[in-house]
């Protein structure tokens, strides 16, 4: 039913769509139309749209205020390997020069102090992790489970809303489609009646012309 229209369901928009997808069956009635639609869909699938729909929001830029995270995201998107860890800072090299100067020894000693401080902090962190880590992970897992349950509930609500909207659209389109079919049938009947009346008028005019012609012939005699 190519002339069917229906308002958009689920919003206050005044947009009008020239189709009733839940009711129209033109593709089933005309296989050649279905073949053309499939060819067009296959052609569009291989092309990239030049611009998005106006209702599609613009792309959101992640980590715009954090250059380090943005650089890491760009690295992951580019499928680049992770840089190797710098292990020099965890070593205790001696003075490079031989014989070593006092400045070289001061640098080596400073590096050793930094390594010792790092190990001390690491040991303290391990002790804290052993004492409080298990409870912290339990709390973290509980929060994750709560967030997952909330997301699942929201997803289920959205699915129910989507199902309800599609059900309403189908009911409305089915009702409108039946009305349009009835009106189309009535329109066809009226057009047929008008054609029959026009044919009857043409036949009557032909009979009248024939009678007028006979009347003229009788008057001439």
TrEMBL record:
Signal sequence coordinates: none
Cellular compartment(s): Nucleus
UniProt keyword annotation of Coiled coil present: yes
Coiled coil spans: 141-221
GO BP of this protein: mRNA processing; RNA splicing
Residues covered by region (Disordered): 1-20
InterPro entries in alphabetical order: SPF27 (IPR008409)
Keyword Coiled coil: yes
Compositional bias segments (type: Polar residues): 1-16
Pfam families per record: BCAS2 (PF05700)
Cellular component terms (Gene Ontology): catalytic step 2 spliceosome; precatalytic spliceosome; Prp19 complex
Main location: nucleus
Domain of life from the UniProt record: Eukaryota
PANTHER family xref list: BCAS2 PROTEIN, PRE-MRNA-SPLICING FACTOR SPF27
Protein family membership: Belongs to the SPF27 family.
Protein name (record): Breast carcinoma amplified sequence 2
Organism: Heliocybe sulcata
Species classification: Eukaryota, Fungi, Dikarya, Basidiomycota, Agaricomycotina
């Amino acid at each position: 039913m190519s002339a069917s229209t229906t308002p958009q369901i689920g919003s206050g928009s005044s947009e009008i769509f020239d189709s009733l997808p839940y009711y129209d069956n033109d593709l089933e009635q005309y296989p050649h139309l279905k073949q053309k639609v499939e060819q067009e869909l296959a052609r569009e699938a291989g092309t990239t749209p030049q611009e998005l729909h106006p209702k599609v929001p613009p792309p959101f830029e992640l980590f715009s205020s954090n250059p380090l995270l943005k650089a890491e995201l760009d690295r992951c998107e580019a499928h680049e390997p992770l840089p190797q860890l710098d292990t020099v800072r965890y070593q205790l090299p001696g003075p490079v020069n031989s014989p070593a100067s006092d400045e070289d020894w001061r640098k080596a000693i400073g590096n050793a102090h930094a390594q010792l401080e790092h190990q001390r902090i690491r040991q303290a962190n391990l002790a804290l992790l052993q004492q409080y880590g298990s409870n912290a992970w339990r709390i973290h897992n509980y929060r994750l489970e709560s967030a997952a349950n909330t997301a699942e509930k929201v997803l289920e609500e959205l699915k129910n809303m989507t199902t309800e909207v599609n059900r309403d659209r189908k009911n409305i389109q089915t009702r409108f489609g039946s009305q349009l079919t009835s009106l189309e049938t009535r329109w066809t009947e009226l057009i047929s009646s008008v054609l029959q009346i026009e044919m009857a008028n043409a036949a009557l005019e032909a009979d009248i012309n024939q009678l007028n012609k006979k009347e003229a012939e009788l008057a001439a005699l």
